[in-house]
Design goal:
218 residues; globular
Length: 218
């Protein structure tokens, strides 16, 4: 079954989503940490782990392989639930290759914009290949086509890396990612809330309650 991750570092959003019983993990990045008003990645990541008890991704800041590897050592030591996000660049691939050899080398390859990048990340040992669907769409490209292509490549060659649809902008993206065979879909909390809501559900509930009150009043 496809997994749902929430793309946020705000504890209140994560707690509300987790209470619904449908959240499998959380993805964060430096921008999301900034929006949540914290610069303490370790503390906030561990707070998130306490809430979800599932996969939580924390991103490196370094752009060179050596720095990424050093950061990954620290990030992965925080909890068995933590994955380190590594950008899919030539330096990132070098880092993934090293980190994937560690017993705790849990890798989320991020900033993927093509099936070729996803394939290389999988070859380098990544556990997740995060495809930025929304940003591709913003550039006039077909982000979901990359998800479909990656799914087919991974299935054809038996690659264990999971396809993660990221940069999700609206519920339609979620539906398309599910139909494309994504293993994981990470989305902002507002998108998740929109998936739950429907004016037809609200109208139906109001009618049921109104009819019940009529019967109870007799």
């Amino acid at each position: 079954m496809a997994k749902i991750f929430v793309d946020t570092a705000k504890i209140e959003e994560i707690e509300e989503a987790a209470a619904w019983g449908i959240v499998d993990g959380v993805t964060t990045n430096p921008t999301l940490m900034f929006r949540a008003g914290t610069a303490n990645r370790k503390q906030r990541t561990l707070e998130i782990v306490e809430v979800v008890r599932g996969s939580v991704s924390a991103e490196v800041i370094s752009t060179e392989a050596e720095g990424m590897i050093e950061e990954a050592k620290e990030i992965l030591s925080w909890s068995e639930h933590v994955y380190v996000k590594i950008p899919t660049t030539d330096e990132g691939l070098k880092a993934m290759h090293v980190i994937s050899q560690w017993p705790n080398g849990r890798i989320n390859a991020t900033l993927i914009f093509s099936a070729n990048q996803a394939f290389l990340a999988a070859k380098a040992g990544a556990d997740y290949a995060s495809i930025f669907v929304g940003r591709l769409d913003d550039a006039g490209l077909d982000g979901m086509a990359v998800v479909r292509q990656t799914r087919r490549i991974f299935d054809t060659y038996g690659l264990g890396c999971q396809v993660l649809a990221a940069s999700i902008r609206h519920p339609r993206h979620v539906l398309e990612a599910l139909l494309a065979g994504a293993d994981i879909i990470t989305m902002p909390f507002p998108v998740l809330k929109k998936m739950v809501g429907s004016p037809f559900t609200d109208i139906g509930l109001q009618k049921f309650l109104a009819d019940w009150h009529k019967i109870a009043a007799q």
